[in-house]
Amino acid sequence: MDGMTQDISTKDQRPYHHGDLHRTIVEAALDVLSESQSTEFSLRELARRAGVSHNAPYKHFTDKRELLGAVSAVGFELLAKRMAEATRELDSPRERLAAMASAYVCGGVNNPALYRLMFGGYLAGQDDGRPAIERTAAYNMKALVVEAISDGALGRPIADTEANTRTIDGAILVFWSQMHGLTLLLADRLVGPGDKTKELTANVLQGMLDGLVNSIPAVPEGVWVGPPLAG
Amino acid sequence: MDGMTQDISTKDQRPYHHGDLHRTIVEAALDVLSESQSTEFSLRELARRAGVSHNAPYKHFTDKRELLGAVSAVGFELLAKRMAEATRELDSPRERLAAMASAYVCGGVNNPALYRLMFGGYLAGQDDGRPAIERTAAYNMKALVVEAISDGALGRPIADTEANTRTIDGAILVFWSQMHGLTLLLADRLVGPGDKTKELTANVLQGMLDGLVNSIPAVPEGVWVGPPLAG
DNA sequence: CGAGATATGTTGACATTGTCCACTCTAGCA
DNA sequence: TGCTAGAGTGGACAATGTCAACATATCTCG
């Protein structure tokens, strides 16, 4: 009797229904992506890791694309969270902005494949665009930067008003593209070594902020900075 | 008789040996990459396009990786050529630098998949590194920028000497990462619209150059800017 | 000039993958 | 209690990267 029940309980430990396969698959994908630093893993591999049949994931994602979209969204949330945390206990707006930049670059350098998945147009299919969750996360990140700027990170406060949109977007364009480029050059080892990341980021950033204090490039009308609002 | 010979001549028009399959395959890859904007095409598709058996490409490339490396190298050469051409008939070093930047960004935006292949660490395998031809092309590009800087693009001439290495590398780091980031944000439509590319590039660039005229961030010792010399 | 040797191409095979379809199980609601 | 819809399973299929064995053209050297 004991034997039988134990047999059942050990063999059949995994119930027919997994419980939260969606989350499990996304986490497995994040793991594999981080380990292999490549998006060329197979859905079947994830299924294997999750201990389910090769087709189970298709009940939660219509596509490999969709799965990668979910992974990307998690990446945005992680990055935004780190940026937000990095500014805790910092008062000076400029220091807050610098801390965010540092967190941003380090996040990207520490997991290039994830960063590339997030920004590298894997889902740049001209048809549908990116998942809403991605756009939301990206806007949250932008909001953090806008806040620091409006608080005076560029020398003087710049209120986050309609009238200042072009100015703020100009500043963010410079800031973002500089950090984005630095992140990717470091991640791809076109600039290095990696253990100088923080130092390089700080140096480049200070020069850039000084430049922005002096003058902020104009952004032409009709330009957007951040994911487009309309699909 | 006529029929037979014609049959033979038309059917057997393609000799057993292709002639220059290597080049043909690379060009086909460039075509497919440019059209599909994805590196996920198949070697077999290229073979089909070249009118050759599915395994013929393997006589010229050990790997899909190696093929993509060759494509990337061509991309570097194309980009360097465009940058060089853009500076023709321009005298002012600053104008030359601006023209190069514009050519660089436009090149990337016009073919994002190729640009991403070149810089996006598809061949960042921690083992072997990038093909020599790629590194050479990247250094040629860097040389163009160095020349403009030493000619005085940043307000005063900065001789390309050992003593100035850190200064020049600092300037190039700022310049390159800014343009790299801008290119990718535009390519991935995180900034747009695309038809404002030149305007945006010019504005961002002028601000950046003004900043560099005032002060060039120091680059810590041991930092490299450009592909590492040692594998 | 003629015969290996050497590239270069071809055919066939295999494991793996994304994805479709038909089926089964199980939980929850009527 | 029994049905239904969601969740998981197994099999099938075409496509792909890559290996191995074979075929053919070109080169080389006697």
From TrEMBL, chains A, B:
- One Pfam family, please name it: TetR_N
Q: Establish whether keyword Transcription is in the entry.
A: yes
Q: List, for all copies, the residue spans of the domain called HTH tetR-type.
A: 19-79
Give this protein's Gene Ontology molecular function annotations.
DNA-binding transcription factor activity; transcription cis-regulatory region binding
- Secretion signal: which residues? none
Kindly indicate whether the keyword DNA-binding belongs to this entry: yes
The cross-references to InterPro entries, in alphabetical order and at most eight, read: Homeodomain-like_sf, HTH-type_TetR-like_transc_reg, HTH_TetR, MT1864/Rv1816-like_C, Tet_transcr_reg_TetR-rel_C_sf
Q: List residues annotated as DNA-binding.
A: 42-61
Q: Which UniProt keywords apply?
A: DNA-binding, Transcription, Transcription regulation
Q: Which PANTHER family match?
A: HTH-TYPE TRANSCRIPTIONAL REGULATOR RUTR, TETR-FAMILY REGULATORY PROTEIN
Name of this chain's protein: Transcriptional regulator
Q: Which organism is it from?
A: Rhizobium leguminosarum
